[in-house]
Amino acid sequence: MSGARGVAPAVTPLKQNLIGLLTRQYAVWADRRTSSWDDAPAFEGPVPGNKGSRRTSGVRQPPGRLLVIDDSKTDRDGLMLLLESRGHSVKAAKHGLEGLRILDRHPEIELILCDLAMPVLDGLGVLKMLAGRGDLRRHPVMILSSLDELEGVVSCLTAGAMDFVRKPFFPEEMALRVHNTLTLTRTLNNLSSLAHRDPLTGLFNHRVFVEMLQRELSRSQRSGVSLGLLFVDLDRFKLVNDRHGHLVGDEVLKEFSRRVRQVARSSDLVARYGGEEFTVVAPEADWNGLYTLAQRIRHAMEEPCATSAGPVMVTVSIGGAVFDPAREQTPDRDRLLSMADQALYLAKDAGRNRVEISQNELPLLN
Ligand SMILES: [Mg+2]
User: Fold this and answer.
1) 317 - beta bridge partners?
2) pTM above 0.90, yes or no
3) Which of 35, 58, 113, 337 is spaced 20 to 30 Å from 301 by Cα?
4) Distance from the alpha carbon of residue 133 to the mean position of ligand 1, in angstroms
5) What is the CA(80)–ligand 1 centre distance, in A?
6) What φ, ψ does residue 53 adopt, rounded to 5°?
7) Phi, psi of 280 (to 5 degrees)
8) Cβ neighbours of 146 (radius 10 Å)
9) What are the structural domains of the chain?
């Protein structure tokens, strides 16, 4: 482990700039994390407490999954020893490229501690690679640097590093900074979940659905590839609540959500529209593709749901509509919603447990 620091050096204008930049960096970084629903993790509830060190004041939390990237074996080993002694699980790499390879194999890594000056790929290079593939939010980076590398630190913070620690560092300071950074990232993840996910089912919420439908429509218009939309409604769901109570109703909603995620493609965006009504935005789906997807969802609910009140059978009715940029110049979100909604009512009227996909010639109700 590197030794303790000497006398604190005078504050230079560069360092003053750095302090200002760091303060702003937290705000920018927090904003980046919450401004996109793409990475919003499924809601997992509050992080359980542990019997962690009392010296890490404030929030108690489970140990982190960390990656140390440093070309100096002494620094690397010292840092691993320190962090592992605090209960964290730590992987290590000799340079940035090796670090990124480890990250690909271990996407569960929560925080990267990365040296600035390294051969092959340095700290700034790691940041740029992560930013380029949109991974900086999922894997925040703390930069480690020596005193004479402050210019580089500024570049790293500008490139999206979450924090930096000067080498040589105090072990206790390092442990606390890691603890605080983990607390911050986990809190932001939970806030992001609360803002973007339906807490019962873990699916995207209504607000995110509206945003992503608009975004996918614009994308469809640009690419010239069609886009499908489904409304899925659980048949006579009120009877389940009346007969078995709302808790059993919730179990059915959760089970439906699990099944729909299983049969949907990874590119399909499933949301809880409200109550027992759900939506699926299906990028690149034409009429046939959307019909096939809808039938898969309908079939998935033809088996009873296991609940605490025993097996409960709930079928679904599904209405869909397709935006085809070859036929319509401008995407009209409300018209698409209205067509899918009307198709759903047709499916209900025709006896439920059915799929109706709009043929695009439906008269609009409004
Ligand atoms: Mg180095």
Assistant:
1) 233
2) no
3) 337
4) 24
5) 15
6) -60, 135
7) -130, 120
8) 15
9) 13-192 (3.40.50.2300), 206-357 (3.30.70.270)
| Cα 66 to ligand 1 centroid, rounded to whole Å | 18
Q: Quote the ligand 1 centre to 94 CA distance (angstroms).
A: 9
The token pair that represents 208 in the structure block: 């995110």
Of the listed ranges 20-29, 60-69, 70-79, 292-301, the one predicted with least confidence: 20-29
- Measured CA to CA, the distance from residue 259 to residue 10 in angstroms comes to 62
The rounded Å distance from CA 56 to ligand 1 centre is: 28
| 10 C-alpha to ligand 1 centroid (Å) | 24
Tell me how far the alpha carbon of residue 17 lies from the centroid of ligand 1, in angstroms. Answer: 24
Supply the pLDDT for residue 21. 57
Q: 70 CA to middle of ligand 1, Å?
A: 6
Q: What is the per-residue pLDDT for 34?
A: 40
Q: Is the pLDDT of residue 25 over 60?
A: no
β-bridge pairing 277-283 and 227-234: antiparallel
- Strand (E) or helix (H) holding 216: helix 206-223
